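S1.2 Input.
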Amino acid sequence: MPALSPRSVLEGRSSNRAPIPLIIGLAVSGFCLLLALTFYLWQGGPVNVVIGTGLALPTAVVLISLILLIDRLEPEPQLNLWLALGWGAGVAIIGALIVNTGSEILMAPVLGAETAAAITVSIVAPVVEESFKGALLLYLLWVRRHEIDGPTDGIVYAGMCGLGFALVENVLYYMQGLGAETGDIWVTVLIRGVIAPLGHPLYTAMTGLGVAYAATHRGVGRFFAVVGGWCGAVFLHALWNGSLTLAGFPGMVAAYLLQFLVLIAVIVVLVLDRKRLVHLIRRYLPAYIPSGLVQPNDVQMLGSMAGRRQARHWARAQAGTTGARAMGDYQLAATELALLHAQAEKNTIAPEAFFARREAILGLMRSARDAFFRRLPQAPAPPWARQERSGFFAPPAQLAAAQLPTYQPGGHRPPPGRPPQPPWPNGPRPGGWPPR
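S1.3 Output.
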């Protein structure tokens, strides 16, 4: 069997092949996107589709770049992000088109066309669209739960799904604007592309926060977190749609102000979660100092965005692209190691899985170091360590396996330097322990 690639290790895969559930999800999303495109071509023609797409793409590109910027400290797998974007642009769009249109057709004979349209926009659409978008997050919770490590991950996946939905939906609205009176298209672009471009990502982020809680905790609270997040998404969506439909411009201003406050709250959550992740690195990695895997200066570098960036620049200056890639793999592996211990503390990972995962992460840290020193056997002292020791420079043979911390659920951790004890006093040690 070929050795696992760094990407496979970081994504927690047992092989270098893409997971089958993600491939199926991408195929279904692509098929639904083709159906949406066919419908658009039938309704508006190729010229309007091209113009509408051209008007919708700039906003989407800017916002996707923003989400990727948010996701820099512990990046999510690219395949997962493509699935989230494609699901929103394909599955969620087709599902919403079918259910929303069907609901309006069924209600029109009973309530009248105008009332049916208002109910569909204000009530049916928020419930349907947030359910289809939220299904992607539940899908990831089911098949890729270990990839959701906190609120930032939930927001990132939700944001990508919401942006995919908004991109394709905006194309339809812009097509309709092109066929309306002169000037309507620019009003539509101003509202959907400039004034309120974060609508769908922000709504679905509420569900994402609930799913993130469910992925990182145990107990019945997980169910209520997901349901509560979905209710928040539906409420925000319905408030925006309903304000435009029922209250006109004053309603839109009020809804916009509320969404702005929610956006500020989401930004605060992201900032706090980044601090949490840095704290995890500084909390768990010192336990690896006695083993020689890291040294105090390494922990300080890994726990700082500026320090990590400085280390990558140094690696690139010394060993080119190979060195920068090796340092990036080393940093991401160290981050994953801290997150692994956080999972153990919350009892959300079994001991066997903990040790197997840790062995893979340690292997990646060793291979990243080896890749760097194959390119540059004699490297100068790194800027974060100066003349002091650095675990990045220590040969793998010097790693003291007996000094590695063990699996400790519930927050109990041995003090640094104390030899770890097996999780079961009279039972066999789990596979992969001690690391070899």
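S1.4 Remarks. The first helix runs from residue 6 to 10.
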